[in-house]
Amino acid sequence: MTEETRAQAAIAANAEQFRTFAQLLPNHIWTAPPDGQLDWFNDEALAYSGAQQDDLRGHGWATLVHPDDAELATGQWATALASGNGYETEFRIRREDGAYRWHLVRALPIRDDDGNILRWVGTNTDIHERKVSQDESTTDRDRLWTISRDLMLVCTFDAEITAVNPTAKRLLGWDEAEMIGRKLSEFIHPDDIDRTGQEVASLENGGTTLAFENRFRTRAGEYRLLAWNAVPDAARIHAVGRDITEQRELAKDRERVWNLSPVLKIVADSDGRITDINPTWTRVLGWSRSETIGKRSTDFLVEDQEDWTERLRTLSESAPHVEHRTTLLSKNGQQRQVQWTIVPENGTFYGFGRDVTAEAEAAVALAEAEAALRQSQKMEAVGQLTGGIAHDFNNLLQGITGSLEIVQRRVAQGKLDDLDRFIAGASTAANRAAALTHRLLAFSRRQPLDPKPVRANQLVASMEDLLRRTIGERIELELVLAGGLWVTRCDPNQLESAILNLVINARDAMPDGGKLTIETCNAHLDSAYAARQRGVKPGQYVCVCVTDTGTGMDKDTIAKAFEPFFTTKPIGQGTGLGLSMIYGFAQQSEGYAKIYSEVGSGTTFKLYLPRFQGKSEEEEAPPELTDAHQADAGEVVLVVEDDTVVRGLIVEELRELGYAAIEAVDGPKGLDILRSKRRIDLLITDIGLPGLNGRQVADGARAVRPGLKILFMTGYAENAALASGFLEPGMEMITKPFAMEALATRIRNMLGN
pLDDT: is 245 or 10 the higher one? Predict the structure, then answer.
């Protein structure tokens, strides 16, 4: 055997050995002579492609390359062949099932001792998952840069901006070109420049992360507060700024609410030790912050402390305790009843308490009054309205007696001008008193059935004040009265009673407050609808709809709701006759009643009354009363009273006495005046005001005018309204109706003192 023969045999043996090892590898292995015409593939490559050796030899391998990658793959292979350098690139190769997968393709030349290329050996490594993930990551970063609500900014260590995302335009109004190349200091609030520079310098001096806040100027010249997080690399700082302007304002608002809220607010740990209180705690109970923080909540309780301790223990990580009433001892030894809602969160208890001492005493008085008035089951509605009716009736009496006193005095003095206004005021109040008495008789069912043409809109509107007092402050009342409403025919007293009963039911279904809507509309019930309902005649109807957002009823309850004596209320709180009487009234009026309800979503009650086709008498509109003009001379008295007649009489009396009188129709308007710089020597306010009551107005007044003298008016009996500790120094109370001379004497004595 010649030397050449032995060499060729050795090469053949090495080639066979190489191919054996190549078959054992999981990658695709291929070889090519110096000219680059691929001539061998291992089984992995053939199995992947589903091709044979002959299919892929030469340039056949290029048929497997994705069309979009073919130019890159063949071009770089040609470059490698020409230069003799290694080949490395990424492209997609078609699998047997036609799918393309990304591969890392590498090839190295095998050289002889003289450096000549003998063969090329290549590998294909599947990198599809990594490549796709990498592409998605790049896409996500680009998308985040584009759509992020946060300001993303890159700058040098010299604070020169090199890149910003589109949020700069959306948030600040600056175009990218207007910011790149400029210094950060050109956009930062002057008061924040030095601090921001120090933060940037800390990153240049070895800091790894940074979190700080500063104010950034918008293109309009305003400033937005941004919270920054920044990290450096070798040459730049990458920062993300989140706009916290509204968040910071909200935090300030929360602090104001904490400090100004009339609700007692406390924070306690899991052991019941108080860690924070708001100023209302001190104002209501007298205990200062230093006297409260660190003590257990049970230290201020009058009732069984063990029961309260057990209640706190069971609160941990459970649902809130809502409307739980406790009796607390104030610093002056008096007892205050506070109704709490307590919310647990991560071992901390947050308590929100409302001082209900006056309400509790009033409730006791009201319960006694109801017990005396409940002569029969049909008097339930009157019992519900005792307090509100008494307040309204005393206001009406005040309007009558006060007007007549002024008329009598002016007649005696020979001043006969302008008497019509006071006579009209007395007449209006008397008519309203008669209407209120009429309603009381209707509610107690002491009038015979008297159907007549009725304008439902005017009837509902006339009941608004009474209904608001019935449902209380926690329930929002909205009247939606349709324009062009038809006239109906029914007993108006019965209709008023029906609406009142529905409102009371709705109120009881919303113990935590809600919204009550009374709506009127024209309705046409066609034959198809009437055929599906029992006892319904097709025709035109006036619909009165009462909707609440309360607890609602299930189907079984709805089915029984109109049955006599059926009630879902606790024993002693409902007769079960209310809805059955409403249903009977609708039937007697040739109308129809329907309930729509869902548990947890509230209830809608629709009362259909037939349209009246005849002519109805037009009602005269009540005369309008104008407010008295305010004067500036003499001592200044602010009168806060929601009743127009009563307020006008008091203002007129003050004028005749030489006082300058300012008037407000409700608590919020009164507080606005009290918070102004106007001179005010005395505040006269009704206790039973809508929205803010008289006591809340007085507390707000004393907050800004500590020495202000205050005279309360009340339509309730004075002893019932005068809770223990209600009157502070400089406060007095007068009970309606009162003589105008008595009012004048009380004012003079208070201002004289």
Answer: 245
**Residue 188: beta bridge partners?**
216
Contact indicator for 267, 348 with CB cutoff of 8 Å: yes
Q: Residues 709, 698: contact at Cβ < 8 Å? A: no
Contact assessment for residue 687 and residue 717, using Cβ atoms and an 8 Å cutoff: no
* Composition of the chain by helix, strand, coil, percent to 5: 45, 25, 30
> Is pLDDT above 90 for 640?
yes
DSSP 8-state assignment for residue 728: P
Extract the tokens encoding 203: 């990153």
Q: Which helix (H) or strand (E) holds 454?
A: strand 452-454
pLDDT for 720 beyond 60: no
Question: CB burial class (10 A; 0-12, 13-18, 19+) of residue 294?
Answer: exposed
Q: Tokens 């091709």 belong to which residue?
A: 51
Within a 13 Å sphere around the CA of 639, how many CA atoms are in the beta-carbon half?
A: 26
Radius of gyration of the chain (CA): 43
Q: Please tell me the distance from the alpha carbon of residue 263 to that of residue 250, in angstroms, as a whole number.
A: 19
pLDDT (0 to 100) of residue 704: 93
Q: Distance between CA atoms of 706 and 708, rounded to whole angstroms?
A: 6
**CB-side neighbour CA atoms (13 Å) of 52:** 2
Q: Report the percent of the chain where pLDDT is more than 70.
A: 80
Residues 6+ apart with CB under 8 A from 413: none
- To the nearest 10°, the Cα dihedral for 733, 739, 745, 750? 20
| 394 neighbors 715 (Cβ within 8 angstroms) | yes
pLDDT of residue 628: 31
Q: What is the pLDDT of residues 574-589, one digit of tens each?
A: 444 457 677 777 877 8
pLDDT at 243 over 50: yes
609 bridge partner residues: 542
Q: What is the largest CA-CA distance in the chain?
A: 158
CA 668/CA 144 separation, integer angstroms: 48
Terminal Cα distance for the chain, rounded: 141
Judged by DSSP in three states, 546 sits in: strand
Phi, psi of 490 (to 5 degrees): -165, 180
CB 499 within 8 A of CB 456: no
Is 358 within 8 Å of 340 (Cβ atoms)? no
Tokens, residue 496:
């008023």
Nearest to 487 by CA among 540, 435, 527: 540
